[in-house]
Write a structure and sequence with these properties.
The chain is of the alpha/beta class. The chain is about 55% helix and about 15% strand. It has 14 helices and nine strands. Helix 6 links the parallel strand 5 and strand 6.
Length: about 290
């Protein structure tokens, strides 16, 4: 079993670290809000560290799951950062949805410190984290991936190496682009159905067995019809992710016209007070125009 550190105990990191402990790994945690780390220890055991460097000391694998590029830098860099505490040959695994540029930056810094790095953003949401069934999109060297995968499998149903450092983050961008398009299409379809007087429940039961079926339809169509959005993956976080996608598209020349438009729809949801609503709240714009 591996010696691990887990930095960032939000709605994703808290259960992910719990699965590591449940699978027999030694786990030291750090969270910027100390009470959150203490709550994790009270539930799972292990130990809470006073800094990322302390958590990383002696660890074979150091996992990070925070909010954005700047958050990652704040827990990795400096005298109290994770890299300062990591030993030679240790592996830093970043589960944050961040930029490919940051992934390449951290890979170089880890190498210079005698460590290794994998960018490994996840998909599956809070439910996937809690059930240990996340999809992990990974970028890095094959030999490092092979070392880390058995440990990551503690909370993953799929963990795939997609290319060199940065490839994991690029894959997550594709994931978010596809989700945004699916949700806008589903919102338009459900709003059309409601205004046409169709029985929404029967409709979903019918078309979800055909070519229109998707995870979003199975898990969000009913709540969209009911106008319930106070749960799930927050609009604020989706806009952060789409900003990363749009910035990368400027660099690589990809055209993202629908993604750019949907991002503006999410800005309208935010203006309506829906910053913490689920991303399916695109329906709110159509049902309450």
């Amino acid at each position: 079993m591996a010696k691990t550190a887990f930095i960032g105990l939000g709605v994703m990191g808290f259960p992910m670290a719990g699965h590591l402990k449940a699978n027999g790994h030694d786990v030291v945690v750090f969270n910027r809000t100390r009470a959150r780390a203490e709550a994790w220890v009270a539930k799972h055991g292990g130990r809470a560290a006073a800094s990322p460097a302390e958590a990383a000391h002696g660890a074979d694998f150091v996992f990070v799951c925070v909010g954005n590029d700047d958050d990652v830098r704040s827990v990795v860099h400096g005298k109290s950062g994770a890299l300062a505490g990591m030993g030679k040959g240790a592996v830093l695994v970043d589960h944050t949805t961040a930029s490919a540029e940051l992934a390449r930056e951290l890979a170089e810094e880890a190498t210079n410190a005698g460590a290794a790095f994998l960018d490994a953003p996840v998909s599956g949401g809070q439910a996937g984290a809690e059930n240990g069934k996340l999809t992990v999109m990974t970028g890095g060297k094959p030999e490092i991936f092979d070392r880390a995968k058995p440990v990551i499998d503690s909370y993953a149903r799929a963990c795939v190496l997609l290319g060199p450092n940065g490839a994991g983050q690029l894959a997550k961008m594709v994931n978010q682009i596809c989700i945004a398009g699916l949700l806008q299409g589903l919102a338009e379809g459900m709003n059309f159905a409601a205004r046409a007087g169709l029985d929404g429940q029967k409709l979903i039961e019918t078309i979800s067995k055909g070519a229109a079926q998707s995870w979003q339809m199975d898990n969000r169509a009913h709540t969209m019809l009911a106008g319930k959005f106070d749960f799930g993956f927050a609009v604020d976080w989706m806009r952060k992710d789409l900003a990363i996608c749009l910035a990368e598209a400027k660099r690589n020349g990809a055209r993202l016209p629908a993604t750019a438009l949907i991002d503006q729809f999410y800005a309208q949801v935010q203006a309506r007070g829906g910053r913490r609503w689920d991303t399916s709240s695109l329906m709110h714009l159509l049902a309450n125009d």
